[in-house]
Design brief:
The protein has 303 residues and is α/β, with parallel strands linked by helices. 47% of the residues lie in helices and 14% in strands.
C-alpha cells in the first residue's frame, strides 16, 4: 500500500487520482482549499483517506498538512503537485497582480509543498514526485503565454529536482496533459483578463473566442488520464516527461521538428561565438554530472 499526498484534490485530475488510488487500496491525503468537497466526493474511508485544508501559497500550512499526513500514515510515497490555475489573455493584457497571483499558486505553491514533503522522502530514501505540467509547459501559445510560462518554470524546476533526488531514491516525473475534459476552462479555474487590446484580436483574441466552445468538449478523458498517472507512480523506471493525450503528443512532435529545423538553419551562427583561444572546457556536452549518468544505480531504484 502506498500513501499519496495530492494537492488540488477537490476536482479534476486531483480528485480522480485520489479516487482511483483509494479504490486500489492505497492511503490518500487529499488536500484542497475546501476539504469538505473532497470528503463529499470520495468514498468514506477514514482508515485510508485524510482530507486536509491546504492553500498551497501558505508555506506554513503546507508543513502542517505534511506533519498531519505523516502522523496519520507514517510516510508519504507519492507526491502529486496538482494544484494550479489558468490565465487567459495576451501577455501585454495580463496585469501584474494577475501574473503574480498565478505564479504564487502554480510555481511558488508547488515549491512550498515540495519543500514540506521532500524531507520525508529523503529520510525514507524513496518516493515519487509527480509534478503536473501541461502541453503548455513544453510549447507556449498566444492567449496562454503567462500560464504556459508558469509550467515552463515547473519543467525547469523538475528537471533539476530529478537530478538532485535520484541519488536519494526519489523519482521525479513531469506529467504533461493536453486538453482534458475537466473543469480547467471553467471560470473557477481559468481567469480571463478584462483588458482587451485590439491589435491582438487575430491571435490571443481568437483564442479567447474559441475557449468557451472548447470547454467540456476536450479530447482527453480524465478517468483514463488519472489511470495513466497511477501507472507512472508504479513504474520501475519512470520517465522525466510523460505526455497524456494525442493532442499533446502531436504538439510535442511538431515543436521538436521546428526546433531541430531552426537550430540547423542557424547552426553556423551558434558555432561562430566560441572563443578563439582553446581552453580547458571539454568538447561535447556539459561536464556537469547528471542523474542519468553519475547516479544511474540510485536512479534505477524503485520508490
Amino acid at each position: 500500500m502506498h500513501t499519496w499526498f495530492i494537492t488540488g484534490a477537490s476536482r479534476g485530475f486531483g480528485l480522480e487520482i485520489a479516487r482511483q488510488a483509494l479504490l486500489r487500496g492505497d492511503a490518500v491525503v487529499a488536500t484542497a482549499r475546501k476539504p469538505e468537497a473532497v470528503e463529499a466526493a470520495l468514498p468514506h474511508r477514514p482508515d485510508r483517506l485524510l482530507a486536509l485544508p491546504l492553500d498551497v501559497t501558505d508555506e506554513e500550512a503546507a508543513r502542517t498538512a505534511v506533519t498531519a499526513a505523516v502522523d496519520a500514515f507514517g510516510r508519504i510515497d507519492v507526491l502529486v503537485n496538482n494544484a494550479g490555475r489558468g490565465l487567459l489573455g495576451a501577455v501585454e493584457e495580463s496585469s501584474d497582480a494577475a501574473v503574480r497571483s498565478l505564479y504564487d499558486t502554480n510555481v511558488f505553491g508547488l515549491l512550498n509543498v515540495s519543500r514540506a514533503v521532500l524531507p520525508v522522502m529523503r529520510r525514507q530514501r524513496s518516493g515519487r514526485v509527480l509534478n503536473l505540467s501541461s502541453l503548455g509547459g513544453f510549447a507556449s501559445s498566444s492567449g496562454f503565454g503567462i500560464y504556459c510560462s508558469t509550467k515552463f518554470a515547473v519543467e525547469g524546476i523538475s528537471e533539476a529536482m530529478r537530478e538532485e533526488l535520484a541519488p536519494l531514491g526519489v523519482h521525479v516525473t513531469l506529467v504533461e496533459p493536453g486538453y482534458f475534459r475537466t473543469d480547467f476552462l471553467d471560470a473557477g479555474s481559468l481567469r480571463t483578463e478584462d483588458r482587451l487590446i485590439a491589435d491582438y484580436a487575430p491571435t490571443a483574441g481568437a483564442v479567447r473566442q474559441a475557449v468557451p466552445g472548447m470547454n467540456h468538449a476536450q479530447p482527453g478523458d480524465p478517468v483514463k488520464g488519472a489511470a495513466a498517472v497511477l501507472t507512472l507512480a508504479d513504474a520501475e523506471a519512470p520517465p522525466l516527461r510523460a505526455q497524456l493525450g494525442s493532442d499533446c503528443l502531436a504538439e510535442l512532435e511538431r515543436k521538436l521538428a521546428s526546433v531541430r529545423q531552426e537550430a540547423e538553419a542557424w547552426r553556423e551562427l551558434a558555432l561562430s561565438t566560441d572563443h578563439d583561444e582553446a581552453g580547458n572546457w571539454p568538447a561535447g556536452p556539459s561536464p556537469v554530472p547528471s542523474a542519468a549518468t553519475a547516479w544511474a544505480p540510485a536512479h534505477d531504484r524503485t520508490g
